[in-house]
Design goal:
single chain; 431 residues; 17 helices; UDP-Glc/GDP-Man_DH_N; 6-stranded parallel β-sheet; Rossmann fold; alpha/beta; N-(1-d-carboxylethyl)-l-norvaline Dehydrogenase, domain 2
């Protein structure tokens, strides 16, 4: 089958590569010609495991090619796959308005973009207006992006579920055929209306954010009650009605997509005339939680932070990512700088993004080696739980630090062992 995928999002690149890998001929439409040149030579803008190699393989096999974002679909294409950034809804309508109406050429538009609820119905209306009076059969369906950064390829090729929003039989059958190579273990396609699929995607992330914020609140309460939140977490997770997913407290969640979806869900509720009280609380708790390590440091040093040196391990919003969108590290950095603290940072992948965000500053030093970042530090904050941080050389770390104070923002270290090694340990509700 011939498809045209529009967008430069991670979802667009993964979808294009995966669909090409199953034998389809795919054209990926990008706004940036330099990105296309880079992808042809194996340079992927996303540090997603396996993605660059997969794209290069499909390009070499001539199943994947590139075009401009304003270019028309290929002559043999009848499927337009939209995986655009959330702010490009207008451009999505523009793509539909350009679709050629050759005799007998039917169009299927698959909307995988995270647009507001109801957008697929609006795209369907534009498509019907475009095809009106001709011999073309047209349909737009919703297939929300459920990919998780760091596991995106598996999330497409071995999806736990697909949310397919359509009430058009032939469109449902065609999308099912496109997904058939990735849907063989069991039928993971859940059928619903377009609006229901769009809302379900937002509701999922809203629920996950609620669980995270609830556990962060419980962890803060555990600190006051002299309770170890990790034992509480295990007890809660053992209850089958709850399960253990997203029960790990920490110093707040970030990420462009996750945070944006929660805010979009709150906005949707507000525009419907309802007050999103629970989600407002979730967002407020998360913003407070981003400063929890700063508050612990503040209390440890009796508010005297000016002139101190603090090391920070991890600034990406999650492990495996190069991005810092809404990351807890950003709010933490601003709080430290406001108190005159010099911050030395290490991150395996996100330092370029941090340098671009922060600019040149005398109170920010970036390091390629984590122990160099900790050299002479009055405290070390672990903010992103990269695997490389889970088992540090504690003897070396203690030798280079000015004061052996560890603030574990992700509860990855064992408090008793850390203390036995001569460190002061401050976790999130840990003892």
């Amino acid at each position: 089958m011939n498809l045209d995928v529009y967008g430069d999002t991670l979802c667009a690149l993964v979808s294009a590569a995966a669909l090409a890998s199953s034998g389809n001929t795919v054209r990926l439409h990008l706004a940036d010609a330099q990105m296309a040149d880079g992808l042809r030579t194996g340079n992927c803008p996303y540090r997603e495991p396996g993605l660059a190699a997969m794209i290069a393989e499909q390009v070499q096999a001539k199943r994947l090619d590139f075009a401009g974002i304003t270019d028309l679909p290929g002559e043999r294409s009848a499927v337009v796959w939209l995986a655009l950034s959330p702010d490009l809804l207008h451009e999505a309508h523009g793509i539909i308005q350009q679709l050629p109406l050759n005799a007998g050429r039917d169009w299927l538009v698959v909307n995988q973009s995270t647009f507001p609820v109801g957008s697929t119905e609006a795209l369907q209306a534009s498509l019907q207006a475009r095809c009106a009076g001709g011999q073309n059969t047209c349909a737009a369906v919703s297939l929300p992006d459920l990919l998780t950064e760091g596991d995106a390829i598996a999330g497409f090729m071995r999806a736990d579920r697909w949310l397919l929003g359509t009430d058009v039989d032939w469109a449902r059958n065609l999308v099912s055929e496109l997904l058939r190579p990735f849907n063989r273990r069991r039928n993971a396609i859940m059928l619903m209306q377009p609006r229901e699929a769009e809302f379900t995607k937002l509701a999922i992330n809203g629920m996950l954010a609620t669980r995270l914020s609830y556990m962060n609140d419980m962890a803060n309460l555990a600190d006051n009650l002299n309770v170890d939140i990790d034992r509480v977490r295990q007890g809660m997770g053992a209850d089958k009605r709850i399960g253990d997913a997203y029960l790990y407290p920490g110093c707040g969640f970030g990420g462009q997509a996750f945070s944006r979806d929660v805010m979009s869900l709150a906005s949707t509720l507000q525009h419907s005339g309802m007050q999103p009280q629970l989600l407002d609380q979730v967002l407020q708790i998360n913003e407070r939680q981003k400063e929890v390590l700063f508050r612990k440091l503040w209390e440890r040093y009796g508010t005297h932070l000016r002139g101190r040196k603090v090391a920070m391990w991890g600034v990406a919003f999650k492990p495996t990512s190069t991005r810092i969108d809404n990351a807890p590290s950003l709010k933490l950095l601003e709080a430290l700088w406001a108190q005159g603290v010099e911050v030395h940072v290490h991150d395996p992948r996100a330092l370029p993004a941090l340098a671009e965000w922060a600019g040149e500053r005398d109170d920010l030093v970036l390091h390629d080696d984590p122990y160099e970042a900790a050299d002479g530090a009055d405290a070390l904050m672990l903010v992103t739980e990269w695997k490389a941080y889970w088992s540090p050389d504690l003897a070396r770390l203690k030798a280079v630090m000015n004061t052996p104070v560890l603030l574990d923002g992700r509860n990855v270290w064992e408090p008793a062992f850390i203390k036995e090694c001569g460190f002061e340990y401050y976790g999130i509700g840990r003892r």
